[in-house]
Amino acid sequence: MEKIKAFAGIDIGGTNTVWGITDLTGKILAKSTFRTKDFPDFSKYSSELATRLLTDVEKAGVSMVGAGIGAPNANYFTGNIEKAANLSWKGVVRLREDMERKLKVPVAVTNDANAAALGEMIFGEAKGMKDFIMLTLGTGVGSGIVTDGKLVYGQTGFAGELGHVIMVPGGRECGCGREGCLETYASATGIVRTTCQLLAEMNAESSLRNLPPTELTSQIIAEAATKGDPIALEAFNFTAEMLAIAIANAVVFSSPEAIILAGGLAKAGELLTVPLQKYLDEYTMQSFKGTFRVLHSALPLSEAAILGSAALAISEYKK
Amino acid sequence: MEKIKAFAGIDIGGTNTVWGITDLTGKILAKSTFRTKDFPDFSKYSSELATRLLTDVEKAGVSMVGAGIGAPNANYFTGNIEKAANLSWKGVVRLREDMERKLKVPVAVTNDANAAALGEMIFGEAKGMKDFIMLTLGTGVGSGIVTDGKLVYGQTGFAGELGHVIMVPGGRECGCGREGCLETYASATGIVRTTCQLLAEMNAESSLRNLPPTELTSQIIAEAATKGDPIALEAFNFTAEMLAIAIANAVVFSSPEAIILAGGLAKAGELLTVPLQKYLDEYTMQSFKGTFRVLHSALPLSEAAILGSAALAISEYKK
User: Fold this and answer.
1) Tens digit of each residue's pLDDT (9 = 90 or more) over B115-156
2) Staple B172 to which of A119, B70, B153, B184, CB 3.0 to 4.6 Å?
3) Furthest CA-CA distance within chain B
4) pLDDT at B239
5) Taking 80 as the threshold, does the pLDDT of residue A85 lie above it?
6) What is the structure's pLDDT at B300?
């Protein structure tokens, strides 16, 4: 009997590497993980990854025909990881070249947010859509932009960095070296910064005053907001306003059918989406009102990264 | 002898309609114009346009195989003009349908800024580029965005409205009904507004204090700046800063190879481009520095609109 065709989906994070093997429909046949941080040497890392993945493929009794990798600052065109702040490998890492040699199948790489967008397009909320924007509101803000059914890579391969649109010139210091980027406001860390600012500006009583800033998290702020904490509620309100302006600006750019939210901050649900809708009504240009929806990723968090990278492999395979 | 294949390029403006007939290389074989405003009835307008155009085609002895039309708020997908503030025809104008019936060749329509972008791609500064953004800094700010060799139309056909990214929430009133849009700052009218504001804020002597705001134009401000007028110079400086932030934000979105400037304000040349470059150095995200150029449209102004619309016809013909 012929073995079924399978795809590897690999997500390289600063702390952990997660991978899985899927069929064409996104059914995960096997998955596993190990610590990225244990391998300061990239060549040893990739050998370990390839060996373990190939073992899993053999055990699953499938025929791997392609692999997709999502990694910070990974470039689809060059196949390299370049200057990724959260990874310990220095300089240019020849990710695709190295993995193709070790896996002996075509490998495609892109950054994690682009992979997430492909995952939504093939398996998730964006199924059947040709124009949408994926926004992952995590520690930072990642984005993947799809127009006319294709990811926007731009001239450099690094397009789709909506976390780094400048919202407030001269605003909050950003990890990118500039100031006032979206991710300093509309991310899990951004809402912590907003809360700290509001604790200084507002006199309202708040349970959040009892915590040092280093212990504040978006989850703690969400819990306080659920209990009616005025500072926490205002923090969500302000975060939603910044996000709404950024979305309104993205909409006049590429006129998507949907904005798909994912990541830790998006899990706050209505705390974020109710004020977000209010501000979208205010900031969306008239001619685009009612032309797009804000959706939440429905892929299980534990599988989204694998499915996104596998979707990259599948979309390359189908080309 | 077989007649050469020719294309009509039509630009519908609020005041005038301009058209021309070109060959595949963009050589203009005939051109003409009449007043849009003389025809409050669209059907009479389009009949006049078709009759005159077909007469020109016959006189030129060519075989017209397609027509392209650039018009405010014209939608590539529907072929209609919808709610164009500067045109007297009310409701939905079935532009493509009507013109195809009267011209008996395939007709494609899009908005004027998109047509300008296609003109640059086929005949102008963007020849050979797959990723660039056209910005026309006129009375308003129009834009056409090309990624991977194709215009971004989005789900609605109305994508690419960079004149309406919100730069300053709660800022200047915009014609679109919102506040703080790019075109209230980085347009020919925007720099007039900036100058009025600076005349109030600054004490410096300025020849511009002798003019009522209604007589101020971007050209007068440019002339004053050339003579060293401090208010005029600061107006260009501020305009350049707003434009640089908008460009830096567009660059993280689609990572273009070039930004191509056109329109009245762009004619100010170094008055705009010298401070623009300074602010681009400040606001561009590190990973995109050196990856794009700012260029000026080199198409003769009298021909750019015709060539843009003809380029639309040609790109449809080649599909």
Assistant:
1) 999 999 999 999 999 999 999 999 999 999 999 999 999 999
2) B184
3) 72
4) 98
5) no
6) 87
A242-258: average pLDDT: 98
Both tokens of B210, joined, read 């002798």
Kindly report the nearest CA distance between residue A226 and chain B, in angstroms.
28
- The encoded tokens of residue B178 equal 């919102």
Residue pair A310/A7 in contact by the 8 Å Cβ criterion: yes
**Tokens 């790019």 — which residue?**
B182
**Among 3.30.420.40, 3.40.50.11270, 3.65.10.10, 3.40.50.300, what is the CATH number of B5-119+301-318?**
3.30.420.40
Chain-centre distance for alpha carbon B265: 12
* Structural Rg of chain A based on CA atoms: 20
- Could you tell me which CATH number the domain at A5-119+301-317 has? 3.30.420.40
Task: Map residue B262 onto helix, strand or coil.
Answer: strand
pLDDT-flagged residues of chain B (< 50): none
The Cα A106–Cα A226 span in angstroms is: 48
Cα atoms in the Cβ-side hemisphere of radius 13 Å centred on B154: 27
Backbone angles phi, psi at B10, to 5 degrees: -120, 130
pTM for the structure as a whole: 0.95
What pLDDT is recorded for position A302? 79
Cβ contacts (< 8 Å) between A130 and chain B: which residues?
155
β B293-296/B258-262 pair status: parallel
Q: B261 has which bridge partners? A: B135, B296
Whole-angstrom distance, CA of residue B25 vs CA of residue B127:
12
**Mean pLDDT value of segment A182-211:** 97
Distance CA A76, CA A108 (A): 7
Show residues of chain B in contact with A241, CB under 8 Å: 169
- Name every residue in B having a CB less than 8 A away from some CB of A: 83, 130-131, 145, 147-148, 150, 152-162, 164-166, 169, 176-178, 241, 245, 248-250, 252-257, 283, 285-288, 291-292
Identify the closest residue of chain A to B182 by CA–CA distance: A249
Longest dimension (CA), chain A: 72
State what percent of residues in chain A have pLDDT above 90.
93
Residue ranges of domains in chain B: 5-119+301-318, 128-296
- Number of A–B residue contacts, CB under 8 Å: 135
DSSP letter for each residue of A61-113: T-EEEEEEEE-TTB-TTT--EE--TT-S--SEE-HHHHHHHHH-S-EEEE-HH
* The token pair that represents A149 in the structure block: 């059914």
- Find where tokens 């967008």 sit: A117
Burial class (CB in 10 A: 0-12, 13-18, 19+), B235: buried
Query: What average pLDDT does the segment A178-204 reach?
Result: 97
